[in-house]
Amino acid sequence: MRVIASAAAAPAGGPTTVDLGADGTVVLSASVLNEGSSTLGTTSSIVLDSGNPGRPDAAVDSDYIHFVITDSIDWETCLAVRISVKWTAAPDLAYAVYAGISDATTLAANTGLYGGGVIDTGRPGGAQIGANPTTNATGAAMNAGGGIAVWCCPEENGATRFAQMGITSWPADFSDTGFLHRNNDPGATADIAQGGTLYGFLTFGGTASLAGGTFSGVVVTYEIIDR
């Protein structure tokens, strides 16, 4: 059985839109996400102040918004969990938009997977939480709009954990490069018990101090895809 927790319900078998205001919890680590100036909902405007936003890599030091995907994972039927993030405008800087899954509300090494794309290059990449992302070649900038999608799949040997992922990024203007896609095999991640709670999260990363700016028209969706 599958139980989905979200304020914005979706048709059976389709994606669920996350209300980041009602169902999301903001966790500040780098303290560049300006919660007071941001507007969080089913469509969000997210303001980042200047500074180094961090990443969910070895330091696990980025700000993030987490939400419940399901409180009853069924490993007998789950094929994949997909999280997508779209936006209409973003700072033309080296910010990365990452989304992922975790078995905990506090992100830490080996608690899940993350993936996404870099705004000024369109480059997709990802890893298990606590590791540096492995990335693809450069594509088109996504500051004029675009999106990412992250597919997290259970480990192929039947263990109750997610250990395979696919990452796609795209610019709003498909005449640039269209999709860029990367397959990752991050290795072991935290076990999630049968029937355990699975969390999703959204974070904005970087590797150096950036000037800040606003991500507009941000929409986050997820879908549990059964076999």
Features of the shown structure:
227 residues, mainly beta, Jelly Rolls, disordered N terminus
Would you kindly provide a written description of the structure presented here, covering whatever features stand out?
There is one protein chain. This protein has no helices and 14 strands. The chain has 227 residues and is mainly β. The chain has a single domain, classed as Jelly Rolls. The radius of gyration is 16 Å and the shape is globular. The two termini are 13 Å apart.
Concise synopsis of the structure shown:
The protein is mostly beta strands and 227 residues long.
Task: Give the helix/strand layout.
Layout: E1 16-17, E2 25-27, E3 44-48, E4 64-70, E5 78-87, E6 96-102, E7 112-118, E8 124-128, E9 134-135, E10 146-154, E11 162-171, E12 180-184, E13 198-205, E14 213-226
User: How far do the termini sit from each other?
Assistant: 13 Å
Spans of at least 5 consecutive residues with low confidence: 1-12
Average pLDDT level: 88
Number of strands: 14
The CATH architecture can be given as: Sandwich
